[in-house]
Amino acid sequence: SALGQAGEAESLMQYLLTNSSAKKFGQHLVAATAHACLHCSRPDDAIRLFDNLTEGDHQASVEWQWEGGKERLLPICRDLAMRALGVSSQSGTTDECVAHLVDVEQRGLALSFEAFLGFLLSCEKDGEWEKSVDFLFYVVEKDLSKG
Predict the structure, then answer these.
(1) pLDDT digit string, tens, across residues 41-88
(2) 42 within 8 A of 9, measured Cβ to Cβ
(3) CA–CA distance, 67 with 108 (Å, rounded to integer)
(4) What is the pTM (predicted TM-score) of this model?
């Protein structure tokens, strides 16, 4: 994110996309690059990086492990993608955010505040107020049921 603050997201993206040794850093470098893109107000580039990641180009051969579980996608990558979808110039991003939310829920993963905010921003941008309110009520109900 320091490179993003310095306005150097483009340099980091070029390194990631053109340097074959970049793959050895795996998803952590993708996440750092996406974060830099967000700092430089380039959310569409962050989305492109996530799409490239999920299509297998930088998919890590090792799994991220947590509390006995395994996940092939580093959670911060998904969270950054949802954040980028919320502020991107693309319209119609709410459905993609919903797909990510369903995936997070089915896998029993945690949802970061940034991902939650990205979803709400996508809903706002797309005029999907009903989906945002439904999701907000779902989150509150889920939290209350934990006791």
Answers:
(1) 999 999 998 888 887 654 444 445 555 555 678 888 899 999 999 999
(2) yes
(3) 12
(4) 0.81
